[in-house]
Design goal:
Length: 270
């Protein structure tokens, strides 16, 4: 198994909750939400050539607008991330995680090469300086780590999902260590972020984008949901030099309260 290509036991059939029964207004509302998301993405694509000249505060608001346009309320708690080079790491549940993490601090995303082929979002990601990973080529790992470390040394923030795969939210995978080597090499802090989704009656897996799920199906599920809230907890930054190696650094950044072994979750969803 590649260091970039772990697997998760989550599947749409076993893990993902369907939205509540549709009302007469649910479908038109969902269509309007998706239209608003697409319009915001197109607006972002048009402005992306301006790059660094766009204020970070505007980027953060734009990312929040995307999530809100999809019908999701956003709640961000915790500490403000530091300036300068920074590795942002979070658990990975949904495509919503990407704008949510950018709402904490605008950053160059670390993404699989397949994202480049996504309609609208793919070209936008490329223009935004996304660092694409060829997860099928283990030989590319040292070069990718070096590129991440170079961006961090230049003072950029880089955002990554070290689980390497999306989970449904009932459990999480283990943070892979490779990306943390870049933070060690660059001598920058690591900012752990925990993302979760809930409805008024508790946690939900409706926003999850897992297994053989399609992006369109996940988009539609989110747009059809009512009362969906994204909770983003920004934990204290881990200062450089506080951990001797990438193994202990990854373990420190891992959200312990939700780190459930994969085999346990496999049993739960079987």
């Amino acid at each position: 198994m590649s260091a970039w290509l772990p697997t998760a036991p989550c599947t749409p059939q076993a893990c993902v909750e369907a939205p509540a029964a549709a009302t007469a207004r649910a479908v038109p509302r969902a269509v309007l939400r998706l239209t608003a998301v697409v319009l915001l993405l197109l607006a972002g694509s048009a402005l992306s050539p301006l790059g660094p000249r766009i204020p970070a505060s505007l980027v953060r608001r734009w990312c929040r607008w995307i999530v809100r346009a999809a019908g999701v309320r956003v709640r961000i708690t915790g500490t403000a991330p530091p300036t300068g080079g920074l590795l942002l790491v979070a658990n990975h549940i949904s495509w919503l995680d990407i704008p949510l993490l950018a709402a904490v601090r605008p950053a160059r995303m670390l993404a699989k090469t397949e994202v480049r082929r996504w309609p609208v979002a793919g070209p936008l990601a490329a223009r935004g300086g996304t660092l694409f990973i060829d997860r099928d080529r283990l030989r590319a790992l040292p070069d990718t780590v070096a590129r991440i470390a170079g961006a961090l040394r230049e003072g950029a923030a880089v955002a990554a999902f070290p689980e390497g795969s999306t989970w449904c939210g009932r459990a999480q995978g283990t943070f892979r260590r490779a990306v943390f080597q870049a933070a060690l090499d660059a001598g920058v802090p690591v900012q752990p972020v925990r993302i979760g989704y809930r409805l008024t009656d508790g946690a939900t897996t409706a926003p999850a984008f897992v297994g053989d799920d399609t992006l369109l199906a996940s988009l539609w599920r989110v747009a059809m949901s009512r009362g969906l809230v994204a909770e983003v907890e920004v934990r204290g930054a881990i200062p450089p030099g506080s951990h001797p190696d990438r193994r202990s650094l990854a373990a420190s950044a891992q959200p312990r309260e939700t780190a459930v072994p994969a085999w346990t979750h496999t049993v739960l969803v079987a």
